[in-house]
Amino acid sequence: MLKIKQPPKTNPILLQKWEKLSFMHWRVEKEIINKHIPKDLTLDLYDNVAYIGVIPFMMKNVRPRWGLSVPFISNFPEFNIRTYVRKGNIRGVFFITLDAQSIITRIYASNFFHLPYRYSRGYVIEKSSSFSWSSNRLYKGYELKGSCEGHGQFRYAKKKSLEEFFFERYYLFTASGNQIKIGRIHHDKWMIKKATPRIIKNEFLKSYHLGIKQLDNPAFCHISDGVEVEAWPLENVD
Fold this sequence. Notes:
By secondary structure, the protein is mainly beta. It is about 10% helix and about 50% strand. The protein has a single domain (about 15-235), classed as Acetoacetate decarboxylase-like (Beta Barrel). Strands 1, 2, 3, 4, 5, 6, 7, 8, 9, 10, 11, 12 and 13 form a 13-stranded mixed sheet that branches. The longest helix is centred in the middle third of the chain and has 10 residues, at about 105-110.
């Protein structure tokens, strides 16, 4: 397997696998998305364009490094909305929301990792060359439903391409009050293929009023079978 940068020398605290991922991206006006970003972070742009991503996938075997995965706790569907930011020369992702069918994750990740998790019921399933997904957030009943059908061969993103901009990110940023925190992850380089989306409902993205007119038609769509992931504790950013 092709590896990226070496992981930190310290041990990770969490292990997990991300499976059956659909990546859908829309262009978004910088002035609008900036309202959702902490003031100490800067939007990361590609050719002066900002992007928002919606990613349905399965979290599998989530566990502490010293523990075992537990059925019905360690495996669940997740649906996140993210954009791309930087702090100095460090490029990462910032999550607008993370919806998951896991009450424990909703409590633990929100309290200890300061991530905006919400509880939603849903599924992610594989059918031939496509991934189908549905999520219904209990609060206000927001729904995300559809599928992405892959075509072509799985491959790595080309150097300096828009796909590399989307996928090769190994830091996340979050905020606790006025304090910006950074987290590190490590995994093999993404294997991706282009896909055709069929979005039935996209109320998750609509609810953030980002000025996107074609919520059922992302500018870019990809799928990936997934990666094994290691995660490290959050650290404060000066």
